[in-house]
Amino acid sequence: MTSPATLAKEHVEEKKVMREYILRTRPGGVKGVDHDALCDLLEVDDPSRVIFEQGRGREAVVRVFPVNPLATMRAITLEDLTMDENGCIRVGSYYDGEPLRMRVHDPETGNAQRVIIFGTTGAGKSRALQAFLIACKRAGIVVHLADLKGGQSVPEAQGNVATHVTDLKEAMGLLRAAVAKAEARFKKYAKLGRSGFIINDPDPLEYVVIDEANRLLEKGSPFRAEAAKLIKEIGRTGRSVGIGIVLAAQAGHLDELGGSDTLRAMLKEGEVILLRWSSQMMQALVSDGLLPSGENLQPILKEIGRVRRIRRWDGRKDAGGTKVNSQGMCYHLTSHRSSSMARFFLVGSLKPYKGHDPAIRALYGSAPPPGEPLRLIFPPPKEGKAGSGGADPDGAGLEYAEGDEPELEAMPAMPKTNAQRILAALEDGPLSEADLLDALDNDGGRDVKPGSIRTTISNLRREGQLAPKDASGLISLPQ
Ligand SMILES: Nc1ncnc2c1ncn2[C@@H]1O[C@H](COP(=O)(O)OP(=O)(O)OP(=O)(O)O)[C@@H](O)[C@H]1O
Ligand SMILES: [Mg+2]
Q: Can you give the residue range of the structural domain that contains 136?
């Protein structure tokens, strides 16, 4: 199904609330579908109202809604966040109302989970994590959290998790301690002749949760190699002894997450949730093997409900369309409906709070968090300092021994991508293609080829980072 011309309408059903089409695709199913072209074919001006997903065999199910069914989501409740008999919680809903679930515990195998939540900035990663953290606290699951934006990403978690750290060094201390704990459990269970983990008998299920994991793992991080090794170790050893790992990351490439070989296999076996992405991320997810090649997920636009508007001769836009943000919209790539659009329920308030969000605090409840804080492990202190193992619950007063202090590599300035250069060039207003090419030729970056700029423009349009094509022929940022 690569162009509307190849679509054969087999079945058209008209309903009061929506239209549903079953379209026949080329062999291989819903691949390389051009969502904009599909909207044109169906004569729908608001692309977010048209949702397609793979049907059986060569069928694509295309539904046209009066408004995007995920435009408004209800608030998450404690009932949603209570584990069911399968160890799952309800975190949101697919566009057709089926609950979106996340597994917190696997009662069948006893294994701890491995979860990664990807998304571009502001896509809703931290709120998604917060849902997981609340569910853990309520279920007596112990959480060791590194909130690597100085504690600002999930502020309400403070006091509601067993261990709470906010910088890279402490996060490393936490990871080392978690691996040590997993190894100790491994030996203990081996002695007991245990073959698997039994929750709360005698040990609780525990999770290491890292928000902004990219800060530890990206190129240039002084801890990249060790962090990747430790995370992999938790994924491997921790899993069967009740210590799991949950990462939220804004990453362009798995390579930025400590090297693709290291984490790819582990992540592919775990749960992968993809919130709104950037163009680099999508290509990377495919090349990293997290998405089948050729699979083209319907884009999550930054704003939904926007109609394509015509630019008038005097530069004004025709009014129309209400803006609704798409934060929390996602694909659960490792679920049974990997290509169905879903959205997290609302966790807390839409508006930022000066202090802690009372709705989120209420979901955590006022009880103390389950479990004991991990004793963070740091490299041996310098000669002359007291202590042997270097363990210090607060991580305070510790310094690295000579030679152990990781050096921050001098990072060369990152060259800008074509997408970044195009977006920057359009900041002062819409441009014709020729003017845009001119601007790019003069922005000090490397030479550009018109063909690749055109491709980047259509990618950006598809993602909603540029306004859709209109009659003026100008290229502009979305309003
Ligand atoms: N499920 C949701 N429904 C509606 N709005 C949401 C949802 N999740 C997040 N938001 C809104 O989006 C904002 C950003 O969410 P969040 O902080 O979770 O994003 P993030 O991906 O962690 O961003 P950053 O890259 O800045 O860390 C929130 O303040 C909230 O207003
Ligand atoms: Mg965040």
A: 88-276+326-364
